[in-house]
Amino acid sequence: MNNILNAFKNYPIQTGFILICVCAVLIIIELITLDSPKIKNLKTISWKAFFKKWFFLLIFMIYGLILILKNL
C-alpha cells in the first residue's frame, strides 16, 4: 500500500497517465460488451448501472486528469 501511495506522491504525472489509460481501456471494454442482445432494446442506462460501472471509471479518469494538470 505504501508503494502505491508513494507513486501518487512521487510520480503524479505518470500515475495520472496510467489511471487514464486503464480507465479508457475499461470504458472501451464496457462499450463493447454493451451490445449484448438483452440491452439492445433499452435506450437509456439505469442509475443503478451508472453507479455500478460508469461512475467510478469516470471519477478515476477525472482524478488522473487532475493529477496531470496539477503537476505540469
Description:
- The protein contains three helices and no strands.
- With 72 residues, the protein is mostly helical.
- The chain has one domain (2-70).
- Helix 2 packs antiparallel against helix 3 (47-70).
- It is elongated and about 40 Å long.
- The model has no long low-confidence stretch (mean pLDDT 80).
Helix content: over 70%
Total domains: 1
The total beta strand count reads: 0
Largest sheet: none
What share of residues are in beta strands? under 5%
- Counting helices, strands and paired strands, the structural category is mainly alpha
Per DSSP, the total helix count is 3
Mean pLDDT: 80
Please mark out the parts with pLDDT under 50 across 5 or more consecutive residues, or reply none.
none
* SSE pattern: HHH
- Rg: 15 Å
- State the end-to-end distance: 25 Å
Using the alpha-carbon principal axes, give the shape: elongated
Strand and helix map with partners:
Blueprint: H1 2-10, H2 12-33, H3 47-70
Helix pairs in contact: 2-3
Task: List the defining traits of the structure above.
72 residues, mainly alpha, 76% helix
Give a quick precis of the structure.
The chain has 72 residues and is mainly alpha-helical. It contains three helices and no strands.
